[in-house]
Amino acid sequence: MFVLSNFIVAIAKLVNIFLTIMYWLILIRALISWVNPDPYNAIVQFLHRTTEPILQPVRRMLPPMGIDISPIIVFIAIIFLQSFLVRTLYDIAHSLR
Questions:
Q1: pTM, whole model, 2 decimals?
Q2: Domain ranges of the chain
């Protein structure tokens, strides 16, 4: 069972790394949006391509407002997933040892 336990720990670590990277990418995108960036800049395009698939569904669920709060909602979801999902995976792996 230790092999399955190690596999679940590895999955938990990968999920945590992915969520952390997405958190920082969305934060950087939100900060850059305050300064009206050049849409043809490679970094801006990368940030848009990587974060838009996560932010767009949240935007569709929200009513139209004057300000985009989808990054805040995604931040809350990421923090929840890191606290609940990643911790649960670690606990499952620990119980299998």
A1: 0.88
A2: 18-84
